[in-house]
Amino acid sequence: MLDVDIEKFWEDDALAHEDNCFSPKAPQVALGIRMSEECVFAELGEEGNPWGYTPVERRIELNKRYNEKALKIVGRKLLPEEFPPPDSVFPPIRRIGEVFEGKYVHNGVAEWLEGSCKTPRELEAMLDRVEKLDLREFILPPNWEAEKKRIYETYGKKPDIVRHVRGPVTLAMSIYGTENLIFLILDEPDLARRFSQVISDVIFKIASIMDEEAGYNSENKPGGFRFADDNCCLLTPEMYELFGYPILKRIFDHWCPNPEDNRYQHSDSDMAHLLPILGRLKLTGCNFGPTVLVDEIRKYMPRTRIDGCLAPFTFMSNDEKKIIEEVKRDCEMARECRGLNLSTAGSINNGSLLTSMRAVMYAIQNFGRY
């Protein structure tokens, strides 16, 4: 294995995360990689569906074995070994795709959101129905009040708030179609604006409802909001300005008014052409695709923590030489500006090994010193 001073690495890493990874006292670039539960199967040589259901007992057993190996290779346990009792988990609320009459389906490999309309007239009719919905009644299950009372009395737990949603462009393209949305913005911009406004209203209402369910009001609600919007890269800047930007601006203004509030965008795609627009949102964190590098992001986001820019397929290839090359590149770009949280520019997938994480640690320790 590559030679890493494990104890010193983790001491330095703790300092590296201070001040949103911008601390002048940070001795090295921060490490954002903590692997994922998907990775247990390839690492341990076990059968299983990384994106499917794994029984809790089996999950705990796999995670414990994985953590034993992780301690030896990277010096830390990375995955949870305890899970909440099943009867302490709130019944699921309906998701935003269902509000827009889409269906979440599992194809045996992963879950997808299937659309609900294909033509402008079908879209108009669907938006009419969404606007008339009693959203609280629609998203909360029939047993919600009883379960909320029981769980609170038994475990002292309140419902989770909503601070992360599928991004507006990805949602719209799932519901209406990729090419359909592009042509809609070009051919019927007024209807496109209405679609955007309804998405904005639904996100706002769902988050507000769950704030209330958790016992918060407009004065004491927790700050922060995150969007995952891979498909927004398919829009031109002018299209995104019309459709996506107003939604993020409204939500961030309401839930993230303070400089320290988390304003986050995940779009693991080629986002360079949208950086000038996203830069106006004063994001505190971002995760873009592997072609959007530190030096380009910094032109528009001088104080945004960059979670990247290691290509996920480089990481999953387990080619230590290539991993070290990319990490060295990113560390050199971040040396003057800081604010880099060395992560994959996208998801960490099954097949990514712990030795690859150690290779990243090696590269940071050798090439990522400030």
UniProtKB/TrEMBL annotation:
InterPro entries for the chain: Methanogen_methyltrans (IPR052024), UROD/MetE-like_sf (IPR038071), Uroporphyrinogen_deCOase (IPR000257)
Span of domain Uroporphyrinogen decarboxylase (URO-D): 155-364
One GO BP annotation of this record: porphyrin-containing compound biosynthetic process
Highest taxon, organism lineage: Bacteria
UniProt-recorded Gene Ontology molecular function terms: uroporphyrinogen decarboxylase activity
Pfam families linked to this entry: URO-D
PANTHER family for the chain: METHYLCOBAMIDE:COM METHYLTRANSFERASE MTBA
Protein name, per record: Uroporphyrinogen decarboxylase (URO-D) domain-containing protein
Organism encoding this protein: Clostridium thermosuccinogenes
